[in-house]
Structure formats: C-alpha cells, structure tokens
Design brief:
Number of helices: 0
Subcellular location: Secreted, Extracellular space, Extracellular matrix
Pfam families: cEGF (PF12662), EGF_CA (PF07645)
Radius of gyration: 50 Å
Largest sheet: 3 strands, antiparallel
Keywords: Disulfide bond, EGF-like domain, Extracellular matrix, Repeat, Secreted, Signal
GO molecular function, one term: calcium ion binding
CATH class of the largest domain: Mainly Beta
Order of helices and strands: EEEEEEEEEEEEEEEEEEEEEEEEE
Strand order of the largest sheet: 23-24-25
Shape: rod-shaped
CATH architecture of the largest domain: Ribbon
Distance between the termini: 115 Å
CATH superfamily of the largest domain: Laminin
Family: Belongs to the fibulin family.
Length: 259
C-alpha cells in the first residue's frame, strides 16, 4: 500500500492484479508464455513451463534441441537430419541398412553377387569381386592380366601366359632368379670349344677364339711376340706364326625349364 496526502493506493505483488478490493492471481498461461512447443501450468503468483520432448527451456520459451550436435548420434555410416523436436538418420549409401537409429553394413556377399569361381570380398558399404592372382575382374568375368605390358618385368623377353608370365633370355645369356639375364661364360667349359692353343674370349652374349697367349694378330696370322721360353705351352717345331682362326660369333642358347 502506498500512502499519499489525504489518500492511499494499493499495489499488488508481481503475479497478481488488483481486483475489486484485493489482489488476485494473474493467469499468465493465457498469453501463452511457453510458446508452441511448451505446456504452461499456472501457479499462485507465477507459472511454470513444461517443454515437449525434444525441446528445452532457454529462460523465455521452449526451443528445439538439435540432437545432431551430439557426436555419433547416427553412427559412422549415416547422416543426421534435425527436425523440430526430433531428428532422423539417413545412411550414406545403399550398401547400408537402418537398424533402429544406426546404419549397419549390408554383407552383399551373402547373396553371391560374383560369378562362379570368383571370390567375393565385403567392404563397408560395398563389395568387390576378386579373381585369382594374374587376373582382374571386368565385365562380370575374370580377364587375364598381361604382366608383360609393364617395362622392366624381365631383363630381355617377357612371355605372358594365362594368369602368369615367364622370362626368357637372348642367346648367350641364362636366367637368374626368374627375371634377370646374366652372360654365359662359355670359356669356362672346355675352353669354349677353341682348339689348343688358341684362347677363348668371352663377350656379353657370345664368345670367339683368338690368338694364343704370347701371339699377336697381323693380317690373317698370329705372330709370336715373346721369346719361346716365356710361353706357357709348347708346340711341335716351335712355330713363330700360326694361322689365325676366322672370328665367328658363337652363342649358347638356354631353354627355360618346363613348369
């Protein structure tokens, strides 16, 4: 009550209004203070708001809760979409199915999508048909992979076969570790076929017969260049010249073993 000179005035507390002679409760719920997503409950001198599920009170009204802000609400393989008072999850691709609110991978291999003889491998959201080594999957079948189209697969010659390949070497070379070609030193065996006392000279991929030790080439003859006593061999009549062997490139062919 507020007193003035010769008079007075009554003032009600907050939440009340002046009736005829006394303060009466104000029903705040009539002005819908809780908004469209809340339920108002009037109390003496005040009111309370009860928000619907999926909403929260911000001090003035009921506002939507964005459930999609919670980490992992839909799992790894789904996207979250917020709606007023709720949310829903949608899988990223057709390789998943929704179970409850979580996307679960579909194991496509259970329905045998790959042709006979081809192995099915399931992956998150998809699958892959895998062929045997040496083949690749194309147009719903296994196709031979031509390994020989890649440079450096073999030192010399690459031969493609169904599902595999093998290497060959040119004449005068032999295969090493199924890929590399190394020179065959024909001179190691029986002097390379050169008659005594001629020397065998090995070259990459071939060999030839040259003048004996201590002799030098002059025209079509091999002439002695050092004293006879310094030779490491003896010849009848101790010739000082020998006919030079006509140089002929001789090679050795090695056939790869059968598999």
């Amino acid at each position: 009550m507020h007193q003035h000179s010769g008079s007075y005035r009554c003032v009600c507390d907050r939440g009340y209004t002046m009736g005829r002679r006394e303060c009466v409760d104000v029903n705040e719920c009539r002005r819908n203070p809780c908004g469209k997503y809340g339920k108002c409950h009037n109390t003496i001198g005040s009111y309370k708001c009860y928000c619907r599920r999926g909403f929260k009170w911000n001090g003035r009204t009921c506002i939507d809760i964005n459930e999609c802000r919670r980490r992992g609400v839909c799992g790894r393989y789904a996207r979250c979409y917020n709606t007023p008072g709720s949310y829903y999850c949608k899988c990223y691709s057709s390789g998943y199915k929704m179970i409850g609110l979580t996307c679960v991978d579909i194991n496509e291999c259970l329905r045998n999508p790959c042709p006979s003889g081809v192995t099915c491998h399931n992956f998150p959201g998809s699958y892959r048909c895998a062929c045997k080594p040496g083949y690749y999957f194309a147009n719903n079948t296994c196709v031979d992979h031509n390994e020989c189209k890649y440079k450096g697969r073999c030192d010399h010659i690459c031969v493609n076969t169904p599902g595999s390949f093998y290497c060959l070497c040119r004449k005068g070379f032999e295969l090493f570790k199924k890929r590399y070609c190394v020179d065959i030193n024909e001179c190691r065996c029986n002097n390379g076929g050169c008659p005594f006392p001629y020397r065998c000279v090995n070259k990459p991929g071939h060999h030839y017969c040259d003048c004996p030790f201590g002799f030098g080439v002059r025209g079509n003859m091999c002439h002695l260049l050092i004293p006879q006593k310094k030779l490491n061999f003896t010849l009848p009549n101790n010739p000082t010249a020998l006919p030079r062997m006509k140089p002929q490139l001789q090679t050795t062919t090695v056939i790869p073993p059968k598999k």
